[in-house]
Amino acid sequence: MTRNIRLAPWLLLCCTVLLAALAYEPGLHGGFLFDDFANLPSLGATGPITRWDTFFRYVTSGTADPTGRPIALLSFLLDACDWPANPYPFKRTNLLIHLLNGVLLFLLLRRLGTAITPRAGRSSKRVDAAAVLGASFWMAHPLFVSTTLYIVQREAMLPATFTLLGLLAWLRGREKVAEHALWQGSTWIVAGLGICTVLAVLSKANGILLPALALTLEFVLLRPCERASHRAAPPSSYDRLMLLFAWLPTWVIIAYLVQAGWHGLTVGISDTRPWTLGQRLLTEPRVLLTYLHMLWLPTPFTPGLFNDQVGASTSLLHPWTTLPSLVLVGALIVFAWKGRNRWPALATAIAFFFVGQSIESSTIALELFFEHRNYLPALLMFWPLALWLCDATPATRQPSGILPARSTWPRTRVLLAVACLGVLLAMTWARASLWGNAHDQALLWARLNPTSARAQAFAAQAEMSAGHPRLAIRRLEPALRLAPDQVQLALNLLAARCAEGNLDTPALASAEHALATTRDMGTLLTSWFGRAINQAGSGGCPALDLPEIKRLLLAARQNPRLVSNHGRQQDIYYLLGRIAIKQGQPAQALSLFNAGLREQPRESLALSQAAELGAAGFPAQGLAHLDYFRSLPRPTKASGWNMGRLHAYVLARQNYWPRELARLRDTLLQDLHSSQAPSG
Fold it and tell me: Do the beta carbons of residue 629 and residue 599 sit within 8 Å?
């Protein structure tokens, strides 16, 4: 009988894991999206990852954080070793990680529950049931579909994995130290708050919050419950360990956020952001309350991956929700601290959420809003509800520490718990089904984000892919009138009109205006214009010929917001050089390629541009381009320790760039000699 009681929580958890997997299954058949294309091609950037040399080049190639997120990059090798690849294995692994996180969350909630309640038979069963339910609510929540099924957001999921493992190890160490097993306890704490923090940070930078989250549990949940039940606080040896492995990294984080805020407020932030750091700080309370609304009042469909429709607050009263949001967020934080003795689980869930958001929703000038930012901070969000439904709320006001008397309506609570879980699973299934249908997904996101230029452009692309350019035109023209500087609208409108065969002067003028005024266009510049150059002269769109494409690029080059952007200027020179190649002007192409290389001398660019000249039948110009690159001063190495520096070290140890450049030079020389050899 006792064995069945012990197995019951695991059986229930296995059932919810299986149900969550079934709910997610329709979304596993979707494709790659947006940032997937910016990150995953590195799998084949320097060849298939089948040898140690390509492995080390790949795993050090990350640029997202100072660390480069190598653990996340390493995990992608579970799914593919080259590019292009099939998206299904990536999504399947993401789902397995999500389900694993649900199991780890159950273990954490059960340990927290047993730490704050007595280990009596009935109490233990209720605590276990609450742990299963709290983990199941989180695992089945539809908001996390956009994290789990968005392949690149594995970078947001793995920090949660290591945070859960770290907290479990820390709690084990805390328990051992309290039992005066100092060496065992110290080992667990070092593993939890030391090693797991490093692994979490190597997955994504917000993993550094693990020590701060441990302190949140310590002082909002564990200490109040220990005082209420008259249990002894951990010994001084434990406090010394926490000083080193929890307080020190937490103060480093606080100092960094303060420094980033001071620098952003006094010096400014990137021109690519349409808001100031002060406006961002005013906006984030509104964003945080939106997150809480999405967590507690879930819907099957949300705005998804688009956030450009989120307007920044320009003052405390514009929009009017700014000041109330700021006050409410402050009130919730105060409540979490003041109410920790009376409502420890609820206070902990609130404090854990805000601490978990402290990096991505404060002074670092990231984009204003992303759904995946809730994945880790919301881990404990539904535990207080689960404790109440299972009648396992800790009674911190009772000196004995005994749980309140059992509810007189347990059956109603059971039915309510089952209903809540069923509704969450149904919404997750509906949302995952949408993620498995790219066309319908794009159209729905456009409907849910009517003011998002990105959403409207994405939907227009879906309509064009389905053979309906007229629908895309009807969508893009009014959107472009409202936002004439949005280059993704203007360029997609050109593509739609080309597909319909009626590209006109107003559409070209709108594109020229957008290119001349946009803040930035990211990878859209090279991807869209690259395709346009390839298709020019094929008869598909006569009005968009090479001279017209060149005119548009020259408008972008004169954009005052892009003049000092060396990367974008380099892209423009490269595209202009490609036009010159296609027009049979190798000397002009060489001059343009050289000008782009001066903006940011890079071996990879010199290699690709010289190869392009050679492939077009101009090996002499390709050799001249390599010679020009050799004459340029080498760029200054970045200071400090970061993944970029380690990547450069790996390439240097492998003699990678000299070897590749020498190989290309030999090929170009052979082509040059072949072209000069007399025929016949």
Answer: no
Question: 459 and 420 in one domain?
Answer: no
Q: How far apart are CA 126 and CA 404, in angstroms?
A: 12
| 282 belongs to a structural domain | yes
C-alpha dist (Å) from residue 292 to 54, 121, 247, 374, 384: 43, 35, 28, 9, 15
Give the residue-averaged pLDDT of 71-83. Answer: 95
428 and 446, same domain (yes or no): no
Count of beta carbons in the 10 Å neighbourhood of residue 44: 17
Rounded CA-CA distance 20/98 in Å is: 10
Residue 529 has pLDDT above 60, yes or no: yes
End-to-end CA gap in the chain = 94
Does this model's pTM top 0.85? My answer is yes
Residue 64 lies in a domain: no
Contact indicator for 295, 141 with CB cutoff of 8 Å: yes
The one-letter amino acid at 458? F
Residue 467 falls inside a structural domain: yes
CA-CA distances (angstroms) from residue 397 to 110, 230, 393? Answer: 21, 11, 11
Q: What is the DSSP string of 574-639?
A: HHHHHHHHHTT-HHHHHHHHHHHHHHS--HHHHHHHHHHHHHTT-HHHHHHHHHHHHHSPPPPPPS
Tokens 């456009």 map to which residue? 446
In a domain, 675, yes or no: no
Q: What is the 3-state secondary structure (H, E, C) of 491-535?
A: HHHHHHHHHHCCCCHHHHHHHHHHHHHCCCCCCHHHHHHHHHHHH
Q: How far apart are CA 189 and CA 397, in angstroms?
A: 30
pLDDT tens string 87-126: 999 999 999 999 999 999 999 999 999 887 755 445 688 8
How many domains does one find in the chain?
2
Task: State whether 396 and 518 are in the same domain.
Answer: no
Residue range of the domain that includes 13: 2-45+83-432
- The DSSP secondary structure of 221-254, one letter per residue, reads IIHHHHHHTTPPPPPHHHHHHHIIIIIHHHHHHH
Note whether 616 and 467 are same-domain residues: yes
Whether residue 281 sits in one domain with residue 222: yes
For residue range 363-404, what is the model confidence (pLDDT) as tens digits? Answer: 999 999 999 999 999 999 999 999 999 887 664 544 433 334
Domain identity same for 355 and 427: yes
